[in-house]
Design goal:
The chain has 108 residues and is of the alpha+beta class. It has one domain (18-97). It contains 2 helices and 7 strands; from the N terminus they run H-E-E-E-H-E-E-E-E. The chain has helices at 2-14, 46-55; strands at 18-26, 29-30, 33-34, 60-69, 72-73, 80-81, 85-98. A 3-stranded antiparallel beta sheet has the order 1-7-4. The longest helix has 13 residues, at 2-14. The radius of gyration is 20 Å and the shape is elongated. It starts with a helix and ends in a 10-residue tail after the last strand. 20% of the residues are buried.
């Protein structure tokens, strides 16, 4: 039993220090207006959700939900929509952040 515990501690000590971060954005907004589910170039859904997540400092969107909404704003250009708009109801963003220093200590 001690051997198993020691092995588990050794593996966890050698593993890279990183943590996944997830955040759920409900009714996300850009400049105070709901986020449009499309980008300027006509790409809708996942590409727009990914762009929103990147703008928030995350890597990509895990899931998203859409709904009709009166007015929206595109995350990539800020262009407004005021009729027949589709907004994100929810976007769940994901990233992996390393806890380890990315640069060598000064003087090395």
């Amino acid at each position: 039993m001690r051997t198993l515990l020691a092995a588990a501690l050794l593996v966890s000590a050698c593993a890279p220090a990183s943590a996944a971060q997830v955040r759920n954005f409900f009714s996300p907004v850009v400049e105070g207006v709901r986020v449009d589910a499309c980008l300027e170039g006509g790409e809708c859904g996942k590409p727009a959700a990914d762009a929103f997540c990147r703008a928030q400092g995350y890597d990509h969107a895990m899931i998203f939900q859409r709904e009709r909404f009166a007015a929206t704003r595109m995350v990539d250009t800020g262009k407004a929509c005021s009729e027949a708009c589709t907004a994100f109801r929810q976007v769940k963003c994901f990233t992996v952040k390393s806890d380890m220093a990315t640069s060598a200590p000064a003087g090395l």
